[in-house]
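tool_call: predict_structure(chain=1)
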Amino acid sequence: MELFALRADSDLQDKIAVAVAIAAYAKLSGTPSADEAAWAKNAIADPGSMSRVVINAVLAANKTESVATIQGASDAVIQTTVDAVIDGLVLGG
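tool_result:
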């Protein structure tokens, strides 16, 4: 139940939205496939929408961590998790 409640944590949502935008920009800065480029452009246009998808996977990946640990995660830790989620879940890599 505590993990479910974190889905509504605005600070965590904001961190994940920024991490989504950074990951999207990184995709566009490389040599993205057509699907990756389309995803990245949509994610940059509306990172908040994509973050609502990604937050569930981020929480699942950190299911053994305490609420305090998840809330206190650094931007770098959040980014690493978001990058993995996007590659694996969103882009099917």
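agent: The CA atoms of residues 56 and 89 lie 11 Å apart. Proceeding to next step.
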